[in-house]
Amino acid sequence: MAGFNTRWMCSRSSDPMAKVTVLQHEPFEKLGIIGDALASQSISYQYVRSFEGQPVPRYLTDVDGLIVMGGSMGVYEHHWYPFLLDEIKLIETAIGERKPVLGICLGSQLLATALGATVTRAAKKEIGWYPIRLGPASAGDRLFGEAPPTFVAYHWHGDIFELPEGAVPLARSEVTEHQAYRYGDSAYGLLFHMEATQRIVEDMVSGFAEELSEEHLDGQAILSQATGFLPALHSIGRRAFQGWAELVLNREDIRR
């Protein structure tokens, strides 16, 4: 992968079984507990930091999966953020090669776009802690099969997407019809944030303070609620991300 100036990271093995590329759009929107799930399977990962001008790779040679993180931009703002078009092409490549994809927030919207769905502004932004309700298809799903039917998740989005053709809806919230979906056996889009740690929530509240002010939202309230909601959300998230990590390890089975 020419042009990378970051290193592969894995906390458990110097000879990891698999590798994952992570597209990062904001300094503080990191893997969070997704990184723990990858490390538990000795899967290494490498960030591509678009906010630092790092180029999006054209191919996924010697890479077994792709994670696309959140960000403040919209998928339709590629005239300001041209790297988004490169990311969409990379997602298309991953899907074509049947390599597992995990899109978080903006990442779920980019995945939806790559699958031909439309992303638009929502009538109302969903920021803070709101319940998620799982759909019938989640019962046998690799990520959500053991999750409770409802739980409170962390949200920070102003855009919504259509369900891509051929995708399976997995979750919704009161104001957003499509909060999670699966495409094929190994591509997942999650509009909400199960990966967020207390530090990530703090950094988002600080980094997006102007947006909170515009929406008349109390950042301190979001922070205080995090203490109560994060433990249960992490319990659900760890199982879900562990399931995705297993997809990366079993990619050869998926391709058959």
Structural features, described:
32% of the residues lie in helices and 25% in strands. It has helices at residues 33-40, 83-96, 106-114, 198-207, 209-214, 219-249, 251-255; strands spanning 18-24, 43-49, 65-68, 101-104, 119-134, 150-161, 167-172, 180-183, 187-190. Strand 8 and strand 9 (187-190) form a beta hairpin. Helix 4 crosses helix 6. The longest helix is centred in the last third of the chain and has 31 residues, at 219-249. The two termini are 26 Å apart. Residues 1-6 and 11-15 have low confidence and may be disordered.
Q: Which fold name fills CATH's third level, the topology?
A: Rossmann fold
What kind of assembly state do the chains in view correspond to?
A: single chain
Query: Tell me, what's the shape?
Result: globular
Beginning-to-end CA distance, first to last residue: 26 Å
Average the pLDDT over all residues and give the rounded result.
Answer: 92
Q: Report the CATH architecture.
A: 3-Layer(aba) Sandwich
How many helical elements? 7
Q: How many DSSP-defined strands?
A: 9
Rounded to an integer in angstroms, the radius of gyration calculated over CA atoms is 17 Å
Helix- and strand-based class? alpha/beta
Number of domains: 1
Order of helical and strand elements: EHEEHEHEEEEEHHHH
Share of residues in strands: 25-35%
Q: Low-confidence stretches at least 5 residues in length (pLDDT < 50)?
A: 1-6, 11-15
CATH class: Alpha Beta
* CATH homologous superfamily identity: Class I glutamine amidotransferase (GATase) domain
Q: In this structure, how is the largest beta sheet organized?
A: 9 strands, mixed
Give the spatial strand order of the biggest sheet: 2-1-3-4-9-8-7-5-6
Helix content: 25-40%
